[in-house]
Task: inverse folding
């Protein structure tokens, strides 16, 4: 009951304010896509590229080879992201970045925008906040969409 | 309400995934020069901690007795097979006792103190010294009987996604050993080299220190060193590597 109420409130607040003050916007997947931009934000590909290659923010390069020059210490836990924008719809890209466990329940890829209450023992500095804010998700998705 | 429907599926996926087939020491993933450093009986930087532990082993406790008085000057009267079996179930205390905890209990009960802090450098040094005595012995943790519940609790912790990063130990160390995370080669996260010298930090880390470091990377609030959770996790992690030779002090990235 409390949960349902909370969800309603969260949905209501996201509908009106876009995202809460921690940057979380509730989202809804349709199949394997999130068709709507999170919190109605518009993404900026240049900012998205910076987030993806920054070890403290997206840290995508820890696990993926990114099609960018001069990056060191790229990982290979996940597939290379070159050309991903040509292979997938924007809605799919969004769901990959928001919650990869929808595609693979046993994935090693972090859920970058899962409801913070769902996470276990988050450290104090990060508590109550998603890994990436709604705006940052849209920025990364906008950049991925340019990788054609 | 798709969000809710997916929860059981996610949990099921984690619960049904079996552990790694072939058990491999972190040593096997090291660069040749790092292996050579570990194998060098003069150059291995972890040996400084062994020496520190040996000195403490020979120092008298509050009642005038040193560990060495019961176990031999260099620990030669300790049973290396017994060392390889830790953590072991203590019938009297009704809980698993790690090697470090055994050392702390000896200090408090056989040497009349002063007590060793679980997270302190002295306990770590003594553990490193004692485990080094069993180098080459295969890890042999008992997981039946009263240990079964602790093994299971540890297994659960190993399979729980932690922190803002929301990944489980299992995801990295069972599924992706040999692949690269931040340019670093992931291993199975075995504990047979622990306490080990870490090139990245220049410090020696035992099991609980290493668990904390991994949990911190996941932006999680780590459990305390010596906590019941980490003791259960150590039971599971050590048993997961049953059969691997003890390498203490390992050299790791």
Result:
């Amino acid at each position: 009951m409390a949960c349902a109420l909370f969800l309603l409130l969260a949905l209501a607040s996201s509908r009106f304010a876009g995202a809460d003050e921690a940057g979380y916007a509730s989202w809804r997947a349709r199949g394997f896509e999130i068709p709507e931009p999170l919190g109605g934000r518009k993404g900026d590909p240049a900012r998205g590229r910076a987030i993806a290659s920054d070890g403290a923010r997206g840290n995508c390069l820890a696990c993926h080879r990114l099609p960018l020059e001069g990056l060191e210490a790229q990982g290979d836990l996940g597939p290379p992201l070159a050309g991903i924008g040509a292979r997938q719809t924007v809605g799919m890209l969004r769901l990959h970045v928001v919650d990869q466990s929808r595609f693979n329940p046993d994935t090693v890829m972090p859920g970058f925008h899962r409801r913070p209450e769902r996470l276990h023992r988050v450290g104090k500095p990060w508590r109550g906040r998603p890994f990436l804010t709604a705006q940052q998700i849209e920025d990364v998705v906008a950049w991925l969409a340019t990788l054609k | 309400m798709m969000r809710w429907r997916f929860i059981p599926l996610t949990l099921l996926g984690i619960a049904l995934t079996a552990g790694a087939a072939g058990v491999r020491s972190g040593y096997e993933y090291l660069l040749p020069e790092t292996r050579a450093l570990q194998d060098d009986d003069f150059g291995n930087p972890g040996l400084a901690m062994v020496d520190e532990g040996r000195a403490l082993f020979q120092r008298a406790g509050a009642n005038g007795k040193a560990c060495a008085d019961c176990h031999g000057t260099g620990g030669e009267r300790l049973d290396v097979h017994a060392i390889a079996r830790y953590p072991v179930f203590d019938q009297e205390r009704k809980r698993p006792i790690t090697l470090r905890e055994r050392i702390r209990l000896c200090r408090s009960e056989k040497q009349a103190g002063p007590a060793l802090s679980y997270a302190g450098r002295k306990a770590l040094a003594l553990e490193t010294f004692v485990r080094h005595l069993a180098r080459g012995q295969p890890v042999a943790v008992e997981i039946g009987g009263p240990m079964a519940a602790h093994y299971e609790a540890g297994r659960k912790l190993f399979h729980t996604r932690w922190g803002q990063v929301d990944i489980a130990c299992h995801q990295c160390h069972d599924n992706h050993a040999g692949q690269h995370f931040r340019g670093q080669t992931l291993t199975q996260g075995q504990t047979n080299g622990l306490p080990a010298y870490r090139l990245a930090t220049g410090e020696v880390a035992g099991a609980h220190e290493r668990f904390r470091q991994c949990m911190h990377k996941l932006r999680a609030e780590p459990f305390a060193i010596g906590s019941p959770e980490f003791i259960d996790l150590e039971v599971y992690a050590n048993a997961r590597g049953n059969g691997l030779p003890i390498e203490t002090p390992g050299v790791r990235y």
Observations:
- The domain at 43-146 of chain A is CATH 1.10.760.10 (Cytochrome Bc1 Complex; Chain D, domain 2).
- Chain A has five helices and no strands.
